[in-house]
Amino acid sequence: MSDSYKCPVRTFGRGIHPANDGKSLSRELPVRRAPLLENYFVALPQNIGAPPSWVVKVGDEVKKGQLLATPGGKVSSAIHAPTSGKVAEFLETPGPTGAMVSTLKLTADGKDEWTELPPPLDWKTASREELLQRIADCGVIGMGGAAFPTQIKLAPPPNCKIDFLVLNGAECEPYLTADHRLMLEQPERVLTGAAIASKILGNPRTLIGVEDNKRDAIDRLNRFAGEYGVEVLVLEARYPQGSEKQLIYALTGRRVPEGALPAAAGCVVQNVATAAAIADAVCEGKPLIERIVTVSGEALMHPENLLLRIGTPVLEAVRLCGGIREEPGKLLLGGPMMGFAQKNFDGMVWKNTSGILLLPPRLCVQYESTGCLRCGRCMEVCPMNLVPCSLASAAESGKMDLALQNNVLDCLECGACAYACPAHRPLVQHIRRAKAEIRKMKKK
Amino acid sequence: MNTLEAAVLLMGVTGGILGVVIALAARFFRVAHDPRVELLIELLPNANCGGCGKAGCADLARAIVAGEAKPSDCPVSSREAIASMSSLLGIDPGVAEKKVAVVRCNGDALHTKVAVNYNGVSDCASAALVGGGPKSCNYGCLGLSSCARACPFGAIEMLKNLAVVHPELCVGCGKCVSVCPRGLITLVPASAQVHVYCNSPARAAVKRKNCASPCLGCRKCERQSPDSFEVVNNLARVKYSSGTLPTPELVEAIGCPTKCLRSVSGHLEQERKEAHE
Amino acid sequence: MPKGDRLVLSSSPHLRTEDRVSLVMLKVLIALAPTAVVAIWFFGWPALRVLLCTTIFCVGAEALWCAMARKPVWGTIRDGSAMVTGLLLGLNLSAGIPWYGCLLGALLAIWLGKQVFGGLGHNPFNPALVARVGLLIALPAMMTTWVPTRQMAAQPETEYTRVFYDGVTCATPLGVVGTTPKVMGRTPEAQQTFAAVDNPTALKNYFWGNLGGSLGECSAAALLLGGILLVIWRLINWRIPVAFLGTVFIITGIVHHWAPGLTPSPLFHLLTGGVMLGAIFMATDMVTSPMTRRGALIFGAGCGLVTSVIRIWGNYPEGVSFAILFMNALVPLIDRACVRRPFGYVRYRGGEESK
């Protein structure tokens, strides 16, 4: 039937495969562009690193794609207006993690007029610096979740020779299908972005890893991949395959050294959605103001893959999907394994929001945790080869130095251990606290 | 040689050798000890609360003798104990004002909505990492009693998901200050009878939405008594370092519109009452 | 539109496996079932009485402790660990144990073996073994009075079955072997005594379970079946029983080869006494065994070594319980010695691909 079936199936070993992967809720649904809404709420530090600073004030009229905030440092990223309208006010709202952030309320004027965009670049002839500058100007950041400014990631330290550009199409998080639909519907956008990134990095081998539960996307990508010099590799579906280090290991067999960036292993990883955003920025001059978001979950009436502008309120996204089927037991921004539970519906779409999930109460059972049985399942599934149960018990009893000794800082917080624990221990929360306290101690 | 002789000989020789080893060890590995350290340890409370910032009372005693610390660095010891320690060392006792902790929040479950069911580790530092904690206010007391567990003197009581300090039990060791992830607890002079029970720098509208009794930064207290209060970042503060600490009578006179300016006893009474509702 | 009044706030991950502690314990009980059934088949109703007594007393002891310690009683019993301990304890006792022996054992197992350390997951020693060894030391006569199987009792009095006025007792094959060299020395007569208990017919009997001893020691076949179930369900680390049995086989094999008058054949050692029960169900207890693969091998081999040494040279005919308890005590050290290197620990060298 197709070539993809002949490819060797790769994986990183360990990890888990949740029985309920929830992808069937939205897998078959084409991406729908959301209609223009009345208000958008753009939060300030969309990126990880230094926060940008606002360049507009209350009452300003802005056009779609106009700069709202300029980067506030080297590791920082610009923010643009999702539509044309008026800056209504600046608010303080809690972000997905609960930290308070400065938020701009933009009232749409309904015209949705573009500002004057920078001219399209011919990526084949443009210089590396031009391309990087364009990507920075358009506010492209890692859309898989890390929100790291892309221009920094594409400019690794000069002493690291980059042999591989790895595109992350694994989408190993349950429920999420945004990347899947993107690869299926717009493979050329993804591949163009990959080719641009590859050019910036000096044309390393470019691989795109896709899990084998997305055969249709693999076939579509394979049809075009040759033209762009990209190899499509099939991965065995396994969580957390989309984590940088695990993906690199599965695709290239290289291990990223402990505590180092992937560049140290000669690799750069980009999410497929980021690649598409790079293509938009370079070929059309469009800044990153919208993204595909999987709005799903059993508590939602009609799960969908929506093309939402950055700053769309969560409640509006729920409304666009026909409201709820039952009162949700959990609202998550991101996937169910690493996403953040919200305490109200006041949140909004960020550049790295890949999913809005409404889980029904039956999946949000108030679990009771019992003592650790030392069964070792957390250890078996840990992608970083740690011993989560002993890290958690060290953190629980306040022995942060012991946790540090046992490499707690290498933990990805992927949640595979807590998923597998038969005693239902809140392993990730304990580890997270240990990491937070160790970082606090190190700062001192 | 019969068994008895063998046993006596064996034990004797072993004992002799070990005795020599111990004698040599005592001679070569001797650590010079200042006898005053032992005396100071006896005078210190030996609660090992860590309030002085040293690793327990013995460590503080060593530091005092070494001249790195003063007897008054012990927040727990009474004035008399500090005086006798000072006279032992022949130094000036120094004036240490007794300090007590205060939790600058009045967001009990009646005032601040407990927004969601929190399901996780019952510990403030852990809960603060999850979506900003279960309460609607992201700056207030999380109510999971980490400070009450940390207090070696049992001076913190949980009343309807709010930590309240009993000043008469508090010795000002500061253990609670470091465990509060929200930084709500500060050490204030024990003579201060009035505090602003709010620590949220958010704007008044946000605070009003999240809490029934926040400091709105209305400056009413500052206008009435500029010597005692200042408003910074939408938040009134008592000027603890100024000479004029506000009195409970002044609180009555000001009449804080949200009742978050309270006297210590009034706060305790109010929270007690609400806890029994 | 959602109201958001049922939202739950919790740390990621938000999906969890369906597996539970009670499910784990249920699976262990199922794996123990063949052994229990075989024990009842061979020893008759007394065996059922002992198993019921220990199980009920263990659950009762757990409930009593939780009630006294103001822990949730039902919440603790529900996980089924007390039932597993009770059943294991019963399988470690002789069919002739009186009810008060079972009660004392249950109290030892649950209170001294488990709850004083903080309950399930915190106990350093296997609770059932704590009880067995405690009883063995406190009440040696009661613990070493073995009842023959129904099939053995039906036969005329043999070398190691004796009829007393109030019943029949027997010696275990290990008991016979354990006392022989001490009574007779390493003589050809001793080897003859060995041959009486260590011959193909006898070994076949031992494999299927027709021998005197503890309830759980009788049938190697049933124990192996349970062990296979546990390995399939991934409840035990297969390395522990393999290392345990392998070490016993190798050491007794070597000694038997060089000094046949000192100890019988390795097969005899594997099929008699508590080696199978210990290797498959007791040493593999998750709480009290190492978690790493390397640690499991060391632990299993250590158990096998101590067992063999006690059996061959020790004063006790049987050493499995002591061996496992001894190695339980070493588990923290083993865990410390077998540190896992985090992913990416191997320093990456140069530009070439590494495996």
Describe the 3D structure.
The complex is a heterotrimer of chains A (444), B (277) and C (355). Chain A has four domains: 3-29 and 120-284, Rossmann fold; 39-108, OB fold (Dihydrolipoamide Acetyltransferase, E2P), CATH 2.40.50.100; 293-300 and 309-363, no CATH class; 377-443, no CATH class. Chain A is α/β, with parallel strands linked by helices. In chain A, a hairpin with an 8-residue loop joins strand 5 and strand 6. Helices cover 27% and strands 19% of the residues of chain A. In chain B, strand 3 and strand 4 (163-165) form a beta hairpin. Chain B is elongated. Chain B has 277 residues and is α+β, with helices and mostly antiparallel strands. Chain C folds into two domains: 21-143, no CATH class; 172-333, no CATH class. Chain C contains 17 helices and three strands. Chain C has a two-stranded antiparallel ribbon. In chain C, helix 1 runs antiparallel to helix 2 (45-68) and helix 5 crosses helix 6 (127-138). At the A-C interface, helix 6, helix 8, strand 15, strand 16 and helix 12 of A face strand 1 and helix 1 of C. Strand 2 (117-118) of chain B pairs parallel with strand 1 of chain C, so a sheet runs across the interface.
How would you summarize this macromolecular structure in one to three sentences?
By secondary structure, chain B is an alpha+beta fold. In chain B, 37% of the residues lie in helices and 12% in strands. In chain B, the strands form four sheets. In chain B, strands 1-5 form a two-stranded antiparallel sheet. In chain B, strands 3-4 form a two-stranded antiparallel sheet. In chain B, strands 6-9 form a two-stranded antiparallel ribbon.
